[in-house]
Structures are given as C-alpha cells and as structure tokens.
Amino acid sequence: MLAFIIKRLANAVFVMLSVTFLAFVIFTAVGDPVDQMLNEQATQEQRDELRERLGLEAPFLVQYSKFVARAATGDFGISFRNQQDVLAMIGERFPATFELVLVATFISLVVGVPMGVITAIRRQTWYAEAMQFTSIIGVSLPSFVVGIGLILIFSVWLGWFPAFGRGETVDLGWWSTGLLTHSGRMSIVLPALSLSLFQITLVMRLVRAEMLEVLRSDFIKFARARGVPARRLHFSHALRNCLMPVVTMTAMQVGGLIAFALVTETVFQWPGMGLLFIQAVTFVDVPIMAAYLCIVALIFVVLNTIVDMAYAVIDPRLKGADA
Amino acid sequence: MSISTKTRQGALAGLAAALLAATAQAETIRWGAPRDIVSLDPYSYGDSYTINFLNHIYEGLVRYNRDLEIEPALATAWEIVSPTTWRFTLRKGVKFHDGSDFTAEDVLASLERVSDETSPLKGNLPAYQSATVVDDNTIDIELSGAYPLLLNDLTNIHIFDKGWLVANNAEKPTDVSAGVEGYATFNTNGTGPFQLESRTPEAQTVLAVNNNWWDEPAHNLTRIEFQPISSAATRVAALLSGEVDFVDSAPVQDLPRLAQAENLTILERTDLRTVMLGFNRREELVGGGENPMNDLRVRQAMQLAVDMDLIQDKVMRGKSRNAGALVAPSIPGYSEDLDTVAPFDPEKARALLEEAGYGDGFAFDFVCTNESYVNEEQFCQAIASMWSRVGLEPKLDIGPTAKQTPKRANGKADIYTIGWATLPMLDTYSILVQMLHSKEGNSGVFNWGGWSYPELDKLTQSAAVELDREARLDMENKALRIAKDEIIMMPLHQQPMAWAVSRDFSDFPQFPDNKPRMWYVTK
Questions:
Q1: Chain CA centroid to CA B512, Å
Q2: How far apart are CA B195 and CA A53, in angstroms?
Q3: How many angstroms from the chain centroid is the CA of residue A314?
Q4: Which residue in A65, A230, B89, B462 has a CA-CA distance of 20 to 30 Å to B219?
Q5: For residue A39, what pLDDT is reported?
Q6: What is the pLDDT of residues B308-337, one digit of tens each?
Q7: Angstrom distance (rounded) from CA B48 to CA B53
Q8: Residue A190 CA to its chain's centroid (Å)
Q9: What are the residue ranges of helices labelled H in B123-192?
C-alpha cells in the first residue's frame, strides 16, 4: 500500500510540473502586460525599464524555474494589475466558487437521480421520452446561453431572482458565505441552476443506464416474484446498487465544475476564481493566471489521488496493478 | 394604559417620520460598470477608468468643469514665475476625509510619489523636476523646461495626505516587481466629494457623500454603489430589471431595446476617441518584399477605396462620426478645414495603384483586435473587403488586444487599428508627441509604423515649449495638416458611446471623454 501511495504522489508531482510548464508556454503567447500597465503617455524608456524589473526579459527557462522555486514555498507574488497578494486574492474568491459548485452539485443530484430512475422504469411513457429529449438540449446548449436565458426569464420578466452578484455575505473566519443571508440565497439560485444543467443530464443518464442494468439482474427478478412492492423495489433495492458510480463521478466532477464555473461566473458576475482568471487573461496578469492554473490543477490532482486511493482500499486487485 | 399606548403610537409616528425623512435624504445611485477598478490607489496602474472613479475620492490641484475646461480645485490660483517655475496658491480650509488639514506638504508628497522611479504613472507628469514648499498654502513646481500643458496633466494627479502616507508606510508607490502589497491599495484618504465606505473587489465598492467637502455640491447624492458587471447582456438585464440605475457602457446593438423601456433615458454621443489605421512604413512588408505603402499614391488609393459612409451606416448603425482629422473637434489644435472626409472613389483608387506600379495589387497583413474599439471586428472585415475590390490582398488578422499589441508595437503589422483620445491631456500635443513624432528618445512611443517627418517633429518640439496658447495651437494645427496631407494615419471615425440611466435622475451630464462624474448628478 505504501509503495502505491508513493507512486501516486510522484505521479501527482509530475502532473503539477507539467501543468505549470504548459501554462508558462501559453503565457509567452498571450501578450505583453507592460503595454496595459502603463498609460498612453508613458515613454519607451519607462516601458523597457518596467519590463526589465518584472523579469519579463529573462529567458523562458529562467522565468519558469524561478516561478517553480517560489511557488513551491507558496509564494505566487503580487498581481500586476491589482497589486495585491495573488494567493490572498484567490483565497478570497475560493469560497464563492466552492459554494456555487456545491449548490450546483446538490441540485444536479436532487433533480438528476429521480429523473434517471423515472426514465429507466417508465421507458415507454411520453414524459420519460420528454425528459430524455430535454436532457439532450441540456447538454448541447452552451452555458452562457443558458445563463442569459435564465436571467431574461427570472430577473427581467418575472423579477424573482437578482441578475448578478452574490448578495450579502457573512464572514465566518476567513470563509465568506452567502448561504446565511436571504439575498445571498436568492443570488445563488440562477448561477447554480445554470451550472448544474449539464450535470443534471449527466447524472440522469448515468442513473438510467445503471438502473436498466440492475433491473435485468436476478435478484430484482426474484424480489419481484416474491411480491416486493414496485416502489420499494425500484428506489430502495435497485437504486442503491446504482449509486456507487454516481457518487464517484460526482466527486470527480467537482474539480471540473470548479474549473468550468468560469463561464457561469462571467455571465452572473459571480465574484469567484473563474471571474478573476478571465480578467487576468484580458490584462495578461501573469501571476494570477499562473497561480489559478496551479490551484485548479492541484484540486484535480488531489481529488483524483483520493479517489484512486479509495479504490485501492475497496478493490485490492488494484494495489498490484500499474494503475 | 391608554397613555402608554399613546406614547407608543407617538414614538412609532416619530420613528416613521424619521424613516421617511431618511429615505427622502438617501439618494443612492447604483452604478452598473463594465469592469471593476483595479485598485484604490490612483498611482497604481495606467488605467484612466480607475483614475476617474477615484476622482470621486481624491482630487487634483485643478479639475475639469462641466464643459471640460480647466478650473481651480485644490489650488485657487497659479502663476508662471519663470518659464520653468509655476507657483500655485492652495485652497485654505480643505480637510481630508480623516480630518487632517490640506497643506503644501501634502502636494509635495503626492508629486514625489507619482513621479517616483517605480511609479507606473510617471508619464502623466512628464515635465516635473521638483517642488518646493514656500509656505503652508504656496508651492513652487519646477519643470524640466518651458511646458504649456502642466495644468492639463495636474487634473489627473490626485493629492494624498502626507501624514497618512507616512503613518502607513506608503510614501512610495507600490512596486509590483518587489512583490509587496501597499496600504493605499486597500485604503483611501482624499479630499473629494465622496469617501470610501466599503470595497469588495469584483462585487461592490460603496462611496458615501463627504459632508465636509470644501465645495458647494452640485449633486444631491448621498451614496454611490459601484458594481462591476462584465457581461454586457447581464448588465443590460440588470438595468431592465431595475437592479442598477445607470450603466456607462451600453452595447450599441441593445440601444433600441433599452430606448423602449419607459423608465430609462439613453444618453448617446460620439466620444473623443478617433479610431484610425496606421501604415507600416519600413523598407519591407512583414511578409517580405518591397513596401509599396511608402508611396503616397498607394496610401491615397487605400483611403479612396474605403467607403466610410457605408461603414457608418451599416457597421456603426449611424452612430459614429466620420473623421477627416486625427483629433475630435473639441480637442485644442483641431480645425474644421482638416476635418474633410476623403471621398469614396474606387475608380481613382485603381488608377492611383496603376500609376504607382501596383495595378495587380499586393498582399499585406491587416492586424485588428476584436474588442478595443466599438464593432472593430466588423469594420475591419468591411475595410478588408473594400480593399479586395480594388485589387489589394489584405490578410486580416483579428485577435485579443493583449495578443495583437506586441505585433503592432514591434512592426509585425502592415496595417493596424489604433484609437487616440488625447487623454488625460485633452490636447493635440498628446497625439503629436506619442504617435506622429519620429521614434526617438521619449517621443513616438506609438509610432508603430516607423515613419519620420522632420518638419512635423520640429513643429512638435516647438509646440512643447511654446507658452503662448494661440501660437502653440497654430503649430499643432500645422503638424496635423502635414499628417493629413501625407496620410501618416488614415482617420476612420469618432466612435459612439452610450450611457443609460433611470428616469429617477433629473440631471445627468454626459461627457465626451466617456467618464461619468457623479458630483454633477441630481436624483
């Protein structure tokens, strides 16, 4: 088991290094931050001097190794544009993104699981077909279109929910939460719904496929023969056997949602990490872009490593395999 | 029993009255902005949007009035003692938001801070050499040479409180390369009409009225809630649903829809920014081969081939103003005779190309960004296809600003777009020295095509030290004439700008420099 863990950790470090390296390759192509840091009246000399001071003239590998050495100690520098500590800026915005992802995941399970069961056990009915059809729309619509659509219906026409922002927040130590205030709860509804739409479809399709599989198995047939009520049969016996992959997938998807929340955050002006990243890209704020990519990669790596380890515990066959 | 009920009722009535009075007095404006300010420190980043917002909190020695003319602010009078020395008399009785007095020491500390080696805004005060405190209310500013535009520059140099800077170790501007945060990035202490109440980056910045402001307020606001909403569609939705009262960047394509809303007023005009095209003027084209654009006839042909009326009508939806001069009409140095738009004449364009020996056309890189200017992508495509029709082969390259700017600045573009508003100076000298002058020393930073017109350079240098306004503007005008005759740049148009505001506001002046100034707003 120890060897397995060491191997996984080594993998994780390798992945992190590759991600930061690729990120740096990309940074060399996104443009020059200095042009936007100084205004129209700055002279050429001032521009060159600033570029020099920021270390942007150094060779690529020098810049990269300096970054890795500092990042390893948790020092990501300060933002070119906002002049604030990058890690603090990301830390400030992480709770917003995390709450959004959490609520979206919750919605996707609460809506997706029952839909999956219904489409599996009522295959021929019109409403199951309708759900199947709507779910295709859910996957194929880009999330900014969904977001704008929700805003148009629920904010502009009906006036039920705010169109943007996070509402009032309450600070619990370093964590700021919007879930404890009324305006905060109202504000999270639309962005979370918009972010969960794709997830709902995914959960529904996964549950449906698993259910169809399980419903064919012998123990269900015997249970049915014994006269177990249909409701209990479906929701208790069959569903329970489908949940393992759903839980695994949901856990893995949390990382993905954190990364992909950036579109939703931009549409709803949700003050999270994604919004910060998008703006950093526009202004070539290299320290923020670098730190964001590292942190998102870290979240992915940690989640995957945990899942792998959990699997190894559950399934002893994996311990020896080169997984 | 009955008495106590009465007392309670009385108290309730009093409370209700107090509440009513409070709501009558609380005049809040909820401002839906296209982007957040970058910092609370005005000397942190060369960003005029941030500087303008912070102008609600901080003030300069002089300021622009409603007609964008310079008027006294923290200084009440000034005189030119010698060509390089200006003496400013400061306003008495001005207090900072924390209660400390405004004196000449504060001006000195602020000028030192903005002109520090590491200050990104050093270029905003180019002629500054040093300053000497004469007494509490008088300060002498020493310049590197005779310089007529000092007042224009000072409108954007915000004054800090020296004691506050010293106490918080913020006398120097924040140096990004040192990696240390500065106090002024998160805190403010100005003399302006509003003071900071709270700020959550990317979410909300709240300002409350400063009741101890030295000036008679021309506004009646008590609170400004500044909320960035970067997605244009969301911004429009928030305005329609009444969640914000004002947006300062309404998308052109949404204007008809916003105009239909009964509780909104649309404020439209063209802004000071003139959008133009620049030519590569080096020996060779980016793709190699001799550069035909060094021939004036070719540049003339390229100008004649573009139908600006069609672009105005179809791409800009009739909202832009076609330009003949390189500066907008309200910029000093402009004259009407410069502002003649080149006619659309493809026949003549072909003839000129033929005459210059390029009858079969030539291929070149045409570099545009997709978001710097209003509908830029569309007008670039339109121009490219108009050029194709006279036999040229433009290779259109469109991308984000951050990616395109290095190409343009390093001579990797044959034709490029650029807009110039002469901000914050508001004078033709800005475009002359920064863009049209040969690239040498501190001049011609935006001379991306690499041209050189010695006569224009000479006029620019003379204007830089000419203290007589009429004589100076005459030189600037002559320089613009050379730029027009030689087609150094090809002016396209002044782009449209649109604000939308709730009908609850009775007075809401719109400024051609596209900067909202809430100290002129009445609800």
A1: 10
A2: 34
A3: 26
A4: B89
A5: 62
A6: 999 999 998 888 999 999 999 989 999 999
A7: 9
A8: 17
A9: 150-154, 162-167
| Chain A residues in contact with B123 (beta carbon < 8 A) | 38-39, 41-43, 46
Residues in a beta bridge with B71:
B63
Taking CB atoms and an 8 Å cut-off, how many pairs form between chains A and B?
182
Residue B156: which CATH number? 3.90.76.10
Asked if pLDDT for residue B507 goes beyond 60, the answer is yes
pLDDT band at A318 (very low <50, low <70, confident <90, very high): low
* Domain around B445: 273-495
Same domain, B364 and B476: yes
Task: Count other C-beta atoms under 10 Å from residue B496's C-beta.
Answer: 20
Residue B65: both structure tokens together: 């009035």
Residue for token pair 């928030």? B238
Two tokens at A290? 């670098």
ipTM: 0.76
Cα four-point dihedral sign B343, B345, B348, B353: positive
* B164-174 residue pLDDT tens: 999 998 888 88
Query: B432: closest CA among B480, B491, B467?
Result: B480
CB within 8 Å: B243 and A35: no
Residue of A11, A69, A36, A2 whose CA lies nearest to A285: A36
- State the Rg of chain B over Cα: 26
The interface residues of chain A toward chain B in range 18-77, judged by CB-CB distance below 8 A, are: 29-33, 35-47, 50, 53-55, 75, 77
B355 lies in the same domain as B491: yes
Backbone angles phi, psi at B296, to 5 degrees: -55, -35
Closest CA to B156 of B249, B247, B81, B49: B49
This prediction has a pTM of 0.80
Whether chain A has a CB inside 8 Å of the CB on B343: the answer is no
Joined tokens for residue B4: 């106590």
CATH of the domain at B304: 3.10.105.10
Strand residue runs (E) in B261-329: 264-279, 321-322
**Looking at chain B, which residue has its C-alpha nearest residue A79?**
B176
Query: Residue B442 is nearest to which of A43, A92, A151, comparing CB atoms?
Result: A43
